[in-house]
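Re-run with default settings, no changes from the original entry. Doing this only to confirm the output is reproducible before filing.
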Amino acid sequence: MQLIPQSPDLFTYLASDEAIDHWHPVVLEAADRLWSTTGDAYSYARAAFEFVRDDIPHSADSGDPRVAWRASDVLGTRNGICHAKSHALVALLRAQGIPAGLCYQRLADDDGSHPLVHGLIALRLPGAARWSRLDPRGNRPGVDARFDLVEERLAFPVRPELGEADHPELYAAPHPAVLAALKESADREDLWRRLPTAL
């Protein structure tokens, strides 16, 4: 998919903010630990993706009612939904100088009902000609997201016939509607009521 960056300035996708707090000691410790086992940008990006995908459970799968939204909190509590896990992965990538941003899909149930906005990321490794999307949501039966910079292996390929869509915009910071839902929710059940159904 051809992504449309919000900004032509690559450094925008290395910045920190309140959700992607890659200057935080928890993020830096995790980034340093992962880098020490890899040593190059490609191997590090893969290790960071697999760490967030596999070692931080999606709270809907684990049943955790807590709502984490800052990257440091996601890493510290090992908990989060797709959006929160995406914040954590973007922070880990930026902590090691790899430009990364946030992107979104509109998904629905198998009958087209209950639409929701799903969060994922895109990165651009040194020397790469384009951005590559990755989905750190976490695998489960029927979901098999992989690290692949050539052929997308996302958790949920969209089904246009059900009104699903890939949003082409690449955001440097979380979409305001998504971030507001995360910040204002008392627990995960409350979060499901607040998350946007479209952007």
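The chain has a mean pLDDT of 95. The beta strands are 4-5, 100-107, 116-123, 132-134, 165-166, 169-170.
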